[in-house]
Amino acid sequence: MRGTLHRFWITLGVSIVLALGLVTLLWWQPAPSSQHADQNHPLVMYCAAGIRPPVEAVVREYERRFGARVQLQYGGSGTLLGNVRVAKTGDLFLAADAQTTLLAREQGLVAETMPLARLRPVIAVRRGNPKRIETLQDLLRPDVALALASPEAASVGRATRAALENAGQWDQVRSHARVLKPTVGDVANDIKLGAIDAGIVWDATCRQYPELEMVQVPELAHTIETVAVGVLKCSRQPTAALRLARFLSARDAGLQEFGRQGYQPIDGDMWAETPELVLYCGAMNRPAVEETLHAFEQREGARVTRVYNGCGILVAQMKAGARPDAYLTCDKSFVLPVADLFPGQAMELSDSAIVLLVAKGNPRHLGSLRDLAQKGLRIGVANEAQSTLGALTKRLLQQEDVLEPVMANVVTQVPTADLLVNQMRTGALDAAVVYVSNTTPVRGQLDVVELALPQAIAVQTFSISQDSRFKYLATRLLEALQSQDSRNRYETAGFHWRGAENVTRISPTNANAVGVNR
User: Is residue 17 situated within a structural domain?
Assistant: First the structure.
């Protein structure tokens, strides 16, 4: 009896556990990853009809790999842009020319863009060139039936018109065309079927039709268009859309298919489901950029590994072999020691004046760097070997010819200015040389003394490493840092905004960094 009762209670307990487990499984459903499209709401991509073959192949492979769903809608680039403008729905827009992509951005329809490949317009004829068409003038012969793509609907039509207008030939060629087609594929198919003798199509389109061959003419030779995919601002799944766009534009993923199908692919980023950017960042920038970096990570579905420190320390790490993807300096002079890693242009984002931080009421009546030479003062400065501020402070003291007497009063040298601010808060120092942006949190507790010196300013620059595997991702990070939201954060943190107005030319042979208006 006792054994039977014991087995009963064991069976009952197991049944209860199993029932609870079943209820839990029925109730709990894992949230879908923000990086993948919602299975109930597939991604919608508007795609230029002439780019259909590689895009369709890449998208189907993406669906197979990741279980995503993507709806492709084809048409002429101009037609699709009009559809997006009216409908304000969808996730991605793929145009066959840079002008349409730029127009989409200017109209506020597209956020991020990623280039995919380059195209050239050519004359297409049937294999063997039975009409012996060799020049643009041959298209005007009465025995040649010509088709063109519509400039209003198709990218190749727009590119053709621009090139031939430049050559003074558009009106003649347009008037001789028997028909205007809405897409480049329609032109190619008419040639294939023998409905017409010749047309102007993309070189990659011609390569996809074994029945056709191309004739290259000087009037079209210098026209190169860029195929680009953009994420629509109206997308309800921007992270999933960006992920698909990254797959399309990755040199070891989607771009391989573009190459196989006769396109000239760009040298894109490497593919990674969750790409990681390593950002070396001067510590003074942290209050201004941290929120922007977090928002960028969330939207892109990427990681930004931040390394905050004094620029002297960051430069030493890079000289020792560290290779970040991007570098945000405290001052443009600190990109020059590593110019071989960041050649070209450093984008200027902001600047910050160098000031004196003193006790409330300025009891020692300090008004200049020269006043720091007064005997008995306790002065704090940044370390010149570890930080930009330290190097700039030493330069200013040398220019004012007070380096030795001021340094005699220095009781602490630190790698970052925030440490000086903390010591001023505790009363351990009488004055410290800091950036004005460092003083924002303590404006009510301490006083700021401005220096009447034109050289007392640091300019913060952003550079992308030539060795980065994710140059385009880093470029989008730069765009995020140049945005209006980022500007607001910089100014709230006490910086003066420069944005995209200036660049610093960077060359390993430069002795000095020079700001240049763009």
Answer: no
211 and 240 together in one domain = no
User: Does residue 230 sit in the same domain as residue 213?
Assistant: no
Instruction: Measure the CA–CA gap between 296 and 302, rounded to whole angstroms.
Output: 8
CB-CB contact of 247 with 62 (8 Å): yes
- For residue 347, the surrounding DSSP H or E stretch is strand 344-359
Helix (H) or strand (E) holding 308: strand 303-309
| Cα dihedral: 115, 117, 123, 128 (round 10) | -160
Query: Residue 26 above 80 pLDDT?
Result: no
Looking at residue 36, its pLDDT comes to: 56
What is the tens place of the pLDDT at every residue in 411-427?
999 998 999 999 999 99
Count of Cβ atoms closer than 10 Å to residue 384 Cβ:
17
Q: Are residues 241 and 102 in the same domain?
A: yes
Q: Are 50 and 207 in contact (CB under 8 A)?
A: no
Give the per-residue pLDDT at 504. 74
Measured CA to CA, the distance from residue 241 to residue 95 in angstroms comes to 16
Residue numbers of the domain that contains 67 = 43-117+226-265
User: Radius of gyration of the chain from Cα atoms?
Assistant: 31
Q: Within 13 Å of residue 257, how many CA atoms lie on the same side as its CB? A: 18
Residue 219 near residue 172, CB atoms below 8 Å: no
In this structure, are 234 and 362 located in the same domain? no
Give the model's pLDDT for residue 508. Answer: 56
AA identity, residue 381: V
**91 and 164 share one domain:** no
Distance CA 155, CA 46 (A): 14
Helix then strand then coil, in percent of the chain rounded to 5, is: 40, 25, 35
Residues 476, 334 share a domain: yes
Report d(CA 89, CA 66) in Å as an integer.
23
pLDDT in tens, 467-487: 999 999 999 999 999 999 999
Picking from 413, 436, 418, the residue whose alpha carbon sits closest to that of residue 354 is: 436
Spell out the SS3 assignment of 256-303: HHHHHCCCEECCCCCCCCCCEEEEEEEHHHHHHHHHHHHHHHHHHCCE
506-518 mean pLDDT = 47
Which DSSP letter does residue 439 get?
Answer: G
